[in-house]
């Protein structure tokens, strides 16, 4: 069977390497893929991850038997809906269910309805009302654009001045329609953990905990990046706590989405803050996190294609995840200067030697 994976980062590279372990898999097409993925899949750089029409045409003309949509943007744009409509089995939530990530207001309202612990919040759809609220607020405070903003829509404002600047930016149009509403919420203190679960609309199977580190320098210092590395498990949420965490943060969402007639299929990811008052949900994502995906899939012993297939068929209650007991650690190596401006086009040497080490794999992002 031929497969198609939408996306082109380290996460997609890890998914493709893992899918290839299944003997029924013949060719995997990556749209668009990247230079590293090209060693494991047929990349189609002409088709970007948000070109839904071209993705569906490609899937149909190449008779792919199964598709995985990994990044947030195509999920929010309805890539899964379009592939399903064309008769292609596809792992990932439809656009309705993807609102859990693509609208912070939608997610906060779900959490409120089910008493899922989260930061206190208010929603504003005019900057005048948000400004009036900030005049009496205490700081730090957190300001979030409602919609997807390429990971830049959340500002932790230490002072009123920073909050006003963030509000002006978000509601002033830098993120387009994504910033037409904002959530202003309580600042939470604690250690962050990522809890990801496979979901088939009714059943959730949690993966072990993971933690990503976004700041560019050692010791969690410097500007935030797309992630400098991740490991699993995160000691603050040991395996023995996973079921309890899934009951708090994942299963009520699954139940409500099913009740609304938009059952959630795919990976539901709860970003948790472990506060002194217990876990609180910071956000939901509707996909594998990057870079959490890489160490998590290194620990997954079960066949990924079979699990994804069970999610689509609503058979997850028959599946048990087999997880390697060893920890996994992913370290991102980036060009000097990242995430600011940095040189491009340098050759990376030694990848094969590293890949040949036992228990070590190289996943590539942004390479040619
Ligand atoms: P989000 O996209 O909502 O996860 O926000 C991105 C990052 O902002 C999180 O990973 C946290 O580091 C931080 N953050 C978000 N909400 C809060 C909050 N209520 N209190 C403290 N930090 C937050
Ligand atoms: N690692 C966080 C994310 O993928 O959103």
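^ structure tokens above, recovered residues below v
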């Amino acid at each position: 069977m031929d497969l198609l994976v939408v996306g082109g980062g380290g996460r997609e590279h890890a998914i493709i390497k893992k899918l290839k372990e299944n003997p029924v898999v013949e060719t995997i097409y990556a749209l668009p893929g990247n230079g590293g993925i090209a060693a494991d899949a047929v990349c189609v750089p002409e088709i970007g991850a948000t070109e839904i029409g071209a993705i569906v045409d490609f899937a149909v003309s190449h008779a792919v038997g199964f598709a995985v949509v990994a990044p947030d943007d195509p999920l929010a744009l309805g890539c899964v809906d379009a592939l399903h409509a064309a008769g292609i089995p596809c792992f990932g939530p439809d656009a309705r269910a993807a609102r859990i990530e693509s609208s912070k207001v939608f997610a906060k309202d779900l959490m409120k309805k089910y008493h899922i612990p989260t930061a206190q919040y208010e929603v504003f759809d005019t900057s005048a009302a948000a400004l009036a609220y900030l005049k009496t607020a205490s700081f730090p405070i957190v300001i979030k654009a409602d919609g997807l903003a390429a990971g830049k829509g959340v500002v932790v404002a230490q002072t009123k001045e920073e909050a006003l600047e963030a509000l002006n930016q978000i509601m002033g149009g830098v993120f387009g329609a994504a910033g037409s509403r904002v959530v202003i919420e309580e600042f939470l203190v604690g250690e962050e953990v990522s809890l990801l679960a496979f979901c088939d609309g009714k059943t959730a199977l949690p993966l072990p905990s993971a933690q990503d580190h976004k700041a560019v320098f050692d010791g969690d210092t410097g500007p935030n990046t797309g992630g400098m590395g991740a490991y699993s498990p995160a000691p603050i949420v040991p395996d023995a706590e996973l079921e309890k965490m899934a009951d708090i943060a994942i299963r009520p969402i699954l139940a409500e989405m099913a009740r609304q007639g938009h059952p959630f299929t795919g990976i539901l990811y709860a970003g948790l803050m472990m506060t002194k008052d217990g876990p609180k949900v910071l956000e939901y994502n509707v996909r594998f996190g990057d870079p959490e995906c890489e160490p998590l899939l290194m620990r997954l012993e079960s066949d990924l294609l079979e699990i994804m297939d069970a999610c689509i068929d609503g058979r997850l209650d028959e599946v048990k995840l087999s997880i390697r007991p060893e920890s996994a650690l992913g370290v991102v190596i980036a060009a000097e200067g990242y995430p600011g401006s940095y040189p491009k086009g340098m050759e990376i040497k030694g990848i094969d030697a590293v890949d040949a080490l036992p228990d070590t794999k190289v996943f590539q992002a942004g390479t040619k």
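The chain is about 30% helix and 25% strand.
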